[in-house]
Amino acid sequence: MRLLIVGTLKGQLTTATKIAMDNGATVTHAEDHEQAMRVLRGGKGADLLLVDVALDIRDLVMRLEAEHIHAPIVACGITNDARAAVAAIHAGAKEYIPLPPEPELIAAVLAAVANDSRELVYRDDAMARVIKLAQQIAGSDASVMITGESGTGKEVLARYVHTRSARAKRPFISINCAAIPEHLLESELFGHEKGAFTGAIARRIGKFEEATGGTLLLDEISEMDVRLQSKLLRAIQERVIDRVGGTKPVPVDIRIIATSNRNLAEAVREGTFREDLLFRLNVVNLKIPPLRERPADIMELAQHFVKKYAEANGVPMRPISAEAKRVLSTNRWQGNVRELENTMHRAVLMAQGDEIGPDAILTPDGDRLDLAKTAPAVAHATMAAEQVTRALVGRTVADVERDLILETLKHCLGNRTHAANILGISIRTLRNKLNEYADGGIPITPAGTPGEYPRMPMVGA
Predict the structure, then answer these.
(1) What is the spatial distance between Cα 210 and Cα 173, in angstroms, rounded to a whole number?
(2) pTM, rounded to two decimals
(3) What are the backbone dihedrals phi and psi of residue 147, each rounded to the nearest 5 degrees, phi first?
(4) DSSP state at residue 251
(5) How far is CA 308 from CA 312, 360, 421, in A?
């Protein structure tokens, strides 16, 4: 946690400074906007700016935006003047704190910015295996690739690895490669010299130098342009970077963690990702399973989010009813943990009575989650299952099971993963069954083929 105090607030924020430092934060002071910008350009960076409300906060916000520096601002003042607080918020501050500060309030603000509440909450064995591997490799300096669908918690796991490494007391710097335009990403990563391009009004230290001694997270690295990947590869191999417009290399000492929600091996085949870079980054791969493949985590996380948002919103913490648990457990959670978190936040706000019932488990549109429109493949499979059950009497369990599996697979257009999820069995069990049927001469719908069964048995992944 890096705290930058801007303005003549040193005396008033002695308590805040002490609390921050007691919690492992580094504190830097700047007298005005110009000095603050020099600190931020110089590579010290900041996770939070405490800014004197007497300064022009809107001007500081505009300066930060112009140079693509992202750090939340909390305004501070020696008065409880509501107009000053409102003006500061309208100017771009996230919060207003009256001075002298209450220690509990400062501690809460620092914790919120540091996002200490992003705990690793898990119970499922599939996730436990990932965490165990993360613990094993955390103490090394090996590059780590964290893969998984959007919303599974890749950045949370990256921070977990950092906090258990020898670099834990050094910076953890994150950059989202998908969120920054291609022409700016190089400058964000490696920095630039004054006059290197239009708008480069001063030297700017990039994320590599800012993270020196610590960890650099390259989030969604699969979205990085292939031309920039070659420069990244050199920086990782040689441990030096070249600022845009610079004339000499700059040494850096960082650990690289990268994340991706795409199949990078496939991106290599398509020519959009360098194979040599993948080898450099993928020394250790931490693959986070989607939430639907770790069912034991669903209720554990749901309970965690209920407690978190009940406390955050000042409402009673209600237990989750049995029917609501059924709704949560049977949903596919395409958005993974992020979707579950948002759903439970809504549930905490919408629940009435003594429990969180199914009426509070809503989609963003306000519909009950269990009554939301079913995906086409799931609807077809459900219809097929209903047709099969009408003719159960007089048939063996093996025959019924075979027909149900084949019809479900057919209406899932050959998608093994969807079919296994609908049937409530593992993908391995489904493949074993299909191989058994194919060996018996029964035609199997091939993966991804929506038409009729083929003449020859085909069992695909």
Answers:
(1) 7
(2) 0.65
(3) -120, 160
(4) E
(5) 6, 17, 30
Total Cβ atoms within 10 A of residue 314: 6
Which residues lie across from 286 on neighbouring strands?
A: 146
Strands 250-251 and 240-241: antiparallel
Contact 199, 242 (CB under 8 A): no
Contact 409, 427 (CB under 8 A): no
Minimum mean pLDDT range among 18-27, 169-178, 290-299: 18-27
Based on the number of CB atoms within 10 Å of its own CB, is 410 exposed (0-12), middle (13-18) or buried (19 or more)? buried
**SS3 call for 186:** helix
Q: Looking at the DSSP assignment, which residues form a beta bridge with residue 165?
A: none
pLDDT value, residue 4: 83
At 202, which amino acid appears?
A
d(C-alpha 204, C-alpha 63), whole Å = 13
3-state class of 122 per DSSP? coil
pLDDT in tens, 202-247: 888 889 998 999 999 999 999 999 989 999 999 999 999 988 888 8
Using an 8 Å Cβ cutoff, are 181 and 189 in contact? no
Partners of 48 in the β-ladder: 3
pLDDT band, residue 458 (cuts 50/70/90): very low
Distance, CA of 309 to CA of 306 (rounded, Å): 6
What are the tokens at 426?
């593992």
Residues 6+ apart with CB under 8 A from 16: 3, 5, 50, 101, 106
